Amino acid sequence: MVRDGRGGILGTLRRIPPRRPFRHTWRIDQPGRPEIVGRNEWAAGDSATEAVGRVAVKAAIGLVGALADFGAEGGDQPSRPRTLEWTADGEVVMVSEGSEKVTVKADWVDRRLAFAFALVGDR
User: Which of 61, 67, 82, 114 has CA atoms 20 to 30 A from the CA of 9?
Assistant: First the structure.
């Protein structure tokens, strides 16, 4: 539960356990607003066909990147933080890249809840 400086409730962050083979997801409940659902960017979409298409594109991009880096000096490359698309009623209202970068896209989303997510981190 996230509270303001006077103890008033701003909303709730919930970490939802994973369904294999996927990782956990997130929910943000902001009073008086629709539930905000955080999902992997490639899994977001209205249909299974869209999700499969995104997975295929990400895999192809990853393969090309791996081939381009083949034999590069420096050993292991740092991994990119997981990107989540946060949706409410089918609209993307926020995007997060790990806990380092959170972009709020809808005016009605309380930025203090986005900040709380960044503090908790996507672990």
Answer: 82
